Amino acid sequence: MMKLSDRIAAPVLIEVQDYSNGDGSLNVIEVQKELCFPIKRGYWIHKVPSSEISRGHHAHKALWQCMFVTGGTCHIRLTNENESHEFDLSPNGQALLIPPGYWRDITSFSENAACVVLTSDAYDEDDYIREPEAFREWQHDRQAISSVPYIEMSRYYSRLRLALLEATDSVLKSSHYILGKQTRQFEENFAAYCGADHCVGVGSGLDALSLVLRAYEIGKGDRAIVTANSFVATALSPMLLGCRPDFVDSDRRSYNMDAGLIDAAITGATKAIIPTHLYGQAADMDLIMASAKKYNVKVIEDAAQAHGGLYKGRRCGTLADAAIFSFYPTKNLGAFGDAGAITTNDAALAEHCKSLRNYGAREKYHHDELGCNTRLDELQAALLNVKLPYLNAWIENRRFLASVYNDRLSGIDGLVLPYVPDWAEPVWHVYCVRVKNGKREELINALEAANIGYNIHYPVPLPDQKCFKDLGFDVNDYPVSRDQAGELLSLPLDAYHTEAEINYVSDVVCKFFQI
Ligand SMILES: *Cc1c(COP(=O)(O)O)cnc(C)c1O
């Protein structure tokens, strides 16, 4: 289901649909199917004098073109630093798709040649490179990396622009903006992707967790087990309902909830365990489920960072009573605004959450309970429907880039690489290293000097967050989280980073450690 723009690195001939009968023939290029850009300009070249031996002589920095002849023939050569391609164009039902970054020479025009060109943008002299020397310089600069963003969301937009605009347009003109067919479709698609029976689209990951807790009637006076190292939402959601988060320390190697500590943290008031699949890697679910069974409490996965992640071959989102996801823009599957979802195999829970997200109504204007307003909206659902088919390919690239880091950075004294238990297949929402010996600040300075983005997940363990201070936790009761908060460092790793970018980051890290 990939669009051409994600596959094409080089110019290709595409088949043009041809409808021929005795009345003549009709050739059609469907933008959505054949092109990877919306057509902004079209022009044609004809009556080229036979004395003209070559046209073209330029390159484009960003412009895509689709070229074909409607009569006669011509020859085109496309070159850049690494490749050269030659094509003979004739009216044979094919068109040539030319990505940006190729120098072009068009020669051998037959007398009757008529060449049509469709382009992705209007005329812009700044997009042209007209001197071969300037083209060589531009190519060289383009390949030389001098900065790496932590994440650059616009890369998603530029790859998927046409499909996203089309989806937006279809929603805007549909007149249905809340709980319509896009949301239903996404709920079906995402449930199928996870392998869950039900998916309920809501307004955010935080709300998703709150609805599940409310549907399970977990609230005032209750307690929930939460990991000390997570995003605040995991603990904030129960807290806002009057349910006390009881933190357990992180596992020394995986940074996930230390499942061995759960039993000791369970009290008579404990109603739920909320394990986070931190950084895109599943928590130790068999141990967690065993504790839950022993004490008869619910388990709700916080899978906000783990879309597509696997635990013993099963997808996150299907490993417990229910799971919550966030589609915050920078998550592995992100919307273009706030969005979230619940997945579960429990039909009654799903129905209950659908009611709660929509003013407590199962039937319009019949409010059986105090609900709230937190619905996944049609626009975000439509945009997520466009992005979901790419998720597996994005995960593949994240895995590849993580393997590049693993290769480049292994064996450095004082740098701890991510640990992956053999039952986990993480999706690398975050590539998190640990910088020992108090060197994190210095390494951050080196990254900043090289224009490399970074993050810290998370600088303050949850028991030490001011918003929970009334609960009276002492961070020293969570020594692993406490110590690791000063060492964790997230390096850039996103689906649209390139191997060259990861190598650039690796070079800077290796140089810092004098490797
Ligand atoms: C992002 C995130 C959330 C919250 O999601 P929102 O959609 O921002 O409310 C919850 N838990 C974890 C682990 C997250 O990373």
Question: Can you summarize this structure?
Answer:
The protein contains 15 helices and 27 strands.
Can you offer a commentary on this structure?
This protein starts with a helix and ends with a helix. The longest helix has 19 residues, at 154-172. The strands form seven sheets. It has a seven-stranded mixed β-sheet with strand order 13-21-20-17-16-14-15, with helices on both faces. Helix 6 crosses helix 7 and helix 12 packs parallel to helix 15 (499-512). With 515 residues, it is of the alpha+beta class. A hairpin with a 2-residue loop joins strand 22 and strand 23 (366-367). The chain contains 15 helices and 27 strands. Residues 1-7 have low confidence and may be disordered. The chain binds pyridoxal-5'-phosphate. Pyridoxal-5'-phosphate binds at residues 204-206, 230-231, 233-234, 276, 302, 304-305, 326, 328, 338, 340.
Structure characteristics:
single chain; 515 residues; alpha+beta; 15 helices; globular; disordered N terminus; binds pyridoxal-5'-phosphate
